[in-house]
Specification:
Elements: H1 2-14, H2 18-21, E1 25-35, E2 59-61, E3 67-71, H3 78-93, E4 100-101, H4 125-141, H5 143-146, E5 150-156, H6 170-184, H7 187-192, E6 197-199, E7 213-215, E8 218-220, H8 249-260, H9 265-268, E9 273-274, E10 277-278, E11 296-299, H10 308-315, E12 319-326, H11 337-352, H12 360-376, E13 383-386, E14 389-392, H13 393-415, H14 419-432, H15 438-445, H16 452-468, H17 477-497, H18 502-509
Antiparallel strand pairs: 1-3, 1-4, 1-5, 2-3, 5-12, 6-8, 7-8, 9-10, 11-12, 13-14
Length: about 525
């Protein structure tokens, strides 16, 4: 692998493109459930001081009204990323009226799933569509599953690099990244998985075959890394057999559109519009592209009213969205700078290494490796499969470390210092000593008297206090107050401008895409 990497680096060096390669761009979306001082799910509306959830650039909601989502802009460095994320947290905490952010990926105790408040985006057609989509998610999968929180890491290279790329174009390169990511994604739950346990109420009668052990009301698996990423977590049995082709962007768009257009007999039983009220956007396998539960997605920023697949067809892949990171419960921001730096290294390795096409056998093998690491990642002697051959997980890590080391050295050489190499050393220590992984640290903090509920409350209170004492690093309160005011005005203007009925709006939205070129 190191020889593969060096060939790519030499080719880019010949094009004087290494400065572009080693200055990647990244952004983060962090989800967090609002909770009360006693650890209960907050039932208050989204604070008006935080602006409009429909149009705010940085602060919105995910599935529920109380499930915040913080979005950083694209940043030129890991340090700038963390400064942006910190400022968004600081401003938000100052306007939550004593509420805190639940620090774990798996939700806190939910007494009645029917009382989970769906996110509200106003009365415009696009706002109503977003809410109906969430109504569909609730009816299809249940509200509790939708409260699971994660961190999405968005990654790209500067556009200028593609003029110097030795082979293919941006879309081809990013699709190669996706294929290698699928092969190596097992790395992420081991290093960053932080949900080896969950509140017993989460199961809520859900069938499973996992050999849980119990600490009071908390259920756990002794070697698990991320139950969030397991079949019990943020997944869909209806999507279990789906395989969206990753071998080209054209095939990816084709397959995803086909799934969105495929009727589901199970979802048809829910109904679409019943007694004048929408229960879901449609009765197909996926209502829209966002419903695809994938650990990574190719993305392009959409135009107003544009579907994600239409955007990809119009302009190709612009960035990738990594969706396999748990919330870091030990960081007030849900993400550490060491994790961000490693993600840069890891994704560059996926981009630079040879990326053969994925066939059905390899697809299945990758899924099995991922689930093995999710459920038993810290099991001594864990074996994975590579091209049909058994390989010890620790040995595979050992083969990857020199590749990551070379990339970390390149990043440090271009950006100055040795922060990337130091961050890689943090991850290497987790491989040598599994007790240093977040999942092991979570289990170590649990006991009969302190389950995930008490642990979450303690960490939430600690993080709240830390954030309230943190100064702004990139912006200030006036910046966020102005953005809140702008977003509220933009929502009101959109609502006033809507003249089309909601039914007609949906017909137009789901009309077949016009022919285009990726």
């Amino acid at each position: 692998m190191l020889n593969q990497l060096q060939r790519r680096l030499d080719a880019l060096a010949a094009q004087n493109a290494l400065p572009l390669l080693f200055h990647p761009l990244r952004g983060v979306e962090r989800e967090a459930l609002r909770i009360t001082a006693d650890g209960q799910m907050a039932m208050t509306p989204h604070p008006r001081a935080l602006g409009s959830t429909l149009t705010h650039e940085f602060i919105t909601t995910d599935f529920a009204e109380n499930l915040l989502e913080f979005i950083t802009p694209v940043t030129a460095s890991a340090e700038e990323l963390m400064a942006s994320l910190s400022d968004i947290h600081v401003f938000s905490l100052k306007h939550l009226d004593g509420e805190s952010l639940w620090p774990l990926s798996m939700p806190c105790y939910v007494a009645d799933p029917d009382k989970v408040p769906l996110a509200y985006y106003g009365t415009s057609n696009i706002g109503r569509m977003k809410r109906v989509y969430r109504e569909g998610l609730k009816n299809r999968y249940g509200a509790i599953m939708q409260l699971i929180a994660g961190v999405h890491y968005n990654f790209s290279l500067p556009e200028a690099i593609w003029a110097h790329w030795p082979e293919g174009d941006a879309s081809s390169a990013y699709m190669g990244l996706l294929r290698n990511y699928r092969r190596l994604v097992w790395v992420l739950p081991y290093l960053f998985g932080a949900s080896p346990a969950l509140c017993g109420s989460f199961l809520c009668g859900k069938e499973h075959h996992l050999p849980f052990e119990r600490l009071g009301k908390t259920l756990y698996l002794p070697h698990a890394t991320s139950l969030r990423l397991s079949d019990l977590g943020y997944t869909s049995s209806a999507q279990a057999g789906l395989r969206i082709d990753h071998n080209s962007i054209g095939h990816y768009i084709r397959d995803l559109r086909e799934v969105i257009a495929t009727p589901s007999s199970d979802f048809a039983k829910i109904g679409v519009k019943v007694d004048g009220q929408y229960r879901q956007l449609n009765a197909n396998l996926l209502q829209i592209e966002n419903e695809l539960y994938a650990p990574i997605r190719p993305k392009r920023v959409t135009l107003s009213g544009e579907k994600p697949t239409d955007a990809l067809e119009r302009g190709g892949v612009q960035y990738v969205e990594v969706r396999a990171l748990d919330v870091d419960p030990f960081s007030p921001l849900g993400l550490s700078v060491d994790t961000a730096r490693f993600m840069d290294v890891f994704l560059l390795s996926c981009l630079l290494l040879d990326a053969p096409v994925l066939d059905d056998v390899q697809w299945s093998e990758n899924l099995k490796n991922f689930q093995a690491t999710v459920l038993e990642g810290r099991k001594p002697g864990l074996m994975l499969s590579r091209q049909g051959q058994a390989v010890a997980m620790v040995d595979w890590f050992a083969e990857l470390m020199p590749v990551w080391q070379r990339i970390a050295e390149g990043l440090d050489a271009q950006q100055g210092g040795d922060s990337y190499q130091q961050s890689l050393a943090v991850q290497a220590a987790k491989v040598a000593d599994p007790s240093l992984t977040p999942s092991a640290r979570v289990l170590a903090a649990l006991s009969e008297d302190q389950g995930t509920g008490k642990l979450g409350q303690q960490l939430a209170a600690r993080h709240r206090q830390a954030l309230l004492e943190t100064p702004y690093r990139r912006w200030d309160s006036h910046f966020f107050e102005a953005e809140a005011a702008r977003s509220l005005a933009a929502q009101a203007a959109g609502e006033a401008a809507d003249e089309q009925s909601f039914d007609d709006f949906l017909v137009d939205y789901f009309a077949p895409a016009k022919a285009g070129a990726a």
